[in-house]
Every structure is written in structure tokens, then in C-alpha cells.
Amino acid sequence: MIPTQNPLAAVIAANRFGLGARPGELPVIEKGPEAWLSRQLTGRAPVLTGEGLKPSSETLKQAIALRDEMAEARRDRKDGDEDAAKIRTALKLPALYRPVYIDEAYARFSQAISTDRPFLERLTQFWSNHFAVSIDKIVVLGIAGAMEREAIRPHVTGHFPDLLLAVEKHPAMLLYLDNQASIGPNSRAASFLKRRGNAQGGRKLDINENLAREILELHTLGVDGGYTQADVTTFAKAITGWSIGGEAGNRRFAKLGMNGPPGEFFFREVFHEPGAKKLLGKSYDEDGVRQGEAILKDLAQRRETAHHVSTKLARHFIADDPPVAVVDRMTRAWLDSHGNLPKVYAAMLESPEAWSQPMAKFKTPADYIYSSYRALGVPLTEKRRSLAAFEVLGQRNLQPGSPAGWPDTSADWDGSSALLKRIAWADAAAQRLGSTRNARELAPQLLGATLSDDTAKAIGRAESASQALTLLLSAPEFMRR
Length: 481
Description:
Layout: H1 7-17, H2 26-30, H3 33-39, H4 56-76, H5 82-114, H6 118-130, H7 144-152, H8 160-168, H9 171-176, H10 188-196, H11 210-219, H12 229-238, E1 242-244, E2 265-267, E3 277-279, E4 282-284, H13 289-300, H14 303-317, H15 324-337, H16 341-349, H17 365-376, H18 383-393, H19 416-433, H20 439-447, H21 453-460, H22 465-474, H23 476-479
Antiparallel strand pairs: 1-2, 3-4
Helix pairs in contact: 1-3, 4-5, 5-17, 5-18, 8-13, 11-12, 14-15, 15-16, 19-22, 21-22
């Protein structure tokens, strides 16, 4: 347990586990840092609201309708119009998705800098990065933010098996890793295609292993989790048919009952590879969609999963090389509670090691931006302009570039070029604020017991209010958490 009236623990709570202190917040946290964090886990995560936010199914329905419209136009075009039709097709979907993405990213940013439950918000973004999808794949651009709202936020304070199942069945994950196109070689759809030729309908008789592999390697067991290539293939067969209603969009398959509610998770039984499956030594009877669900539930509660994900949590919150004792406590809490996430978080917070290494992590660009806005009370302005900082500093919202997510160690973010960009951004922000913020007063309120004499002297000797702000935002204590 962490003693109350501990100034250093208050700074750690606000910065390591939260998203940065706000003026006047540290004295409140100091009364009970661990309790302040624990209270934030009471109840479900708040529903994210904002202009333009809508269900992923609604966005996908629009996309499906647009694809059908474009397909019809291509069928009706003259030969000489082929190039123009291709250009129109390439531009229409991004035009549909991009405003949705901007609304989602803006709402996410606004929540991070205004929330009174920053620990919960940090956990939410941790899980979004653990279950990463990336908007550089165009089909994900309009629904990546919705996946965080629909599949992750409702389960952050719940149980890992429920979180895992919600994420893997979300359209953004299925589309990002191409599982909607996975067809079992012995499925009814495969027989249908064989009779008519594989090319008809634009379908190949292939099992796509992307989702199965990433679930095992990244989301559950970890790369050293003891699975084999045979397990990947078997799992991929078990989740054939996990798809999205309306996505097939092909009249040839309508009589097979393929298309389901547009834009929503849909189990295409005709794509599913029939038969019992054996994975990691355990047999699973043929049971349609429930076969894959049963595998996920078992994976969620295996020791390898508990250790792998606990290690990632401890690395994110405590140190690049997470203390072994903390990971062990979290793993035991996971297994004892069958993946009850608040109990896993509590095991981390109750570990003395979690509080004994102040300033152990270098902030990611997103961390740095959030903490700056929270520190200075800067209101968000026009959406695109507000989001530009993430691109300038190298961490665009929801675009990690791979299923592995954004890297989570200091070495990935503390290079000299990245540091210079932060200082330049801090200087530009300080110039805009001018004398409206007093860095000399803010420094002890934001940095508390970690404020060094050197930083305090530098800020005190600044030639202007804006220069003092730049020095505060560029201080080593502010750059780390």
C-alpha cells in the first residue's frame, strides 16, 4: 500500500497512471494516490459522445451502398470511361470515411484532456493499442474510432474474455485482418465456387490466417506462448465465417443466406470450415460460431496470456523493463479471478515497485500532447488544426501502422530529432499563449516533488512569459512520466 500524504506518489499517480496533472490537482491526489486511482475504476467507462459519432454499422452501411453504386456505374460505363471510373472509385470511399475519422479522433482527444478519470482513459488507450487496427488501411479509416467506443470502452473495467470476444468480432478488426474473406476449403461456399469457377464472385478458396495469427501472437499468448503453425491454421479454420453482414454483396450467394444485417458482425455459416478442431492440445466440437468463441474464452484464461498481457500492462505503466515481481502478482490475480481486469489493475497499484521508480518512462507524443493540454487548460479549436499536433510529433491518432500497435519503450520515442520537434511545438504553443499562463506558478503545481532546482531556476530566469512556458514544457521532468 502507498502511504497517504506522499508528494512524490501524487506526481506518479497523476503522470504515470494518469495523463498529466492539472493545476490544483496534486494536493487532492496526495491525500490518497492509490485510492484516487482506484475510484476511477468504479463503474463502466463513460460513453464517448461528440458531433459526428455514429455506430460503425451505420458507416459501413453507407460504404456498402457506395460500393454497390460504384459497381453499377462500372457496369454501365463505356470502354473509354474506364480510367475515369477507377479514379472516382478510388476517391469516394476516403471522402466518406475521412470526416468520420476526424470526428472520432477529435472526440477521443477532447475526452483525454477533459476527463476526471485519466487512469481509466489511459487504460482505454492501452487496450486500443494492444488490439491495434490502423487507419492506413482504407477500410478501417471510418470505423477504427468506433471500435474503441463499441468494443473496448464498455469492457475496460470488466473481464478480459468479454473484452477479447468483443474486439475480435468487431467489423474493424475483421476488415483490418481480412477475416471476412476467409473461406474454409470444405465449406458450402467453397463447393459452390468450385462448381462455378474460383474467379466468379471475386472469391478465392483460401483460409486467411491473419486474424488467427495476431490473436495468438499479439492479443493473447504472445510470440513465445507455445503455439505452433498448426495451431494458427486450426484456429483460422475455426473462425472462418466470422464476417460482416452485407459485405459479400454478391447476388450469386444470396440463396445461400450469406449477407445478413449490413455493417454488423455476421457469422456466414456457408464460409465456415466444418468439423471438430484441436488447438493447444484441446478438442473443440463443431458448433458453428460458438466453436471460435470457445477457443477465445480458453485463450483468455491461459497462464501464457495472463503473463504476456500483464507484462505489457506493467511495461506501459511502470518501466520499459517491468519488475518481475509486479508481473507475477498481476498474473496470479488474472488467473485467480479468471481475467477480472480491475483485480489485475489493483495488483499493479498495490505493488511497491510501481511507485518506486519516478520518471521511468519517456512520454509518447500522444502522452506529451495530452499532458500539455491538461497542464495549460488549452481549449480545443477547429478539429483538423487541433489534431495536427499528433502528426507533427509522429503519432497520428489510430495509425500505428501495424497490428503490433505503437511501440511502448523510451528508446522508440526519445531520439534527438523527436526531442527537437517537441521543443519547437512547445515554443509555438507558448508563443500563442504569451502571458496568459504563468509558468513560475504552474511548475510546482504540475511537477510537484519532481520539480528540480535547475528547472525552477531556469523558469525563474526566463526573459518572457512565453519563454518560461517553453522551458516548463521542455523540462526533463515534464517529458517523462
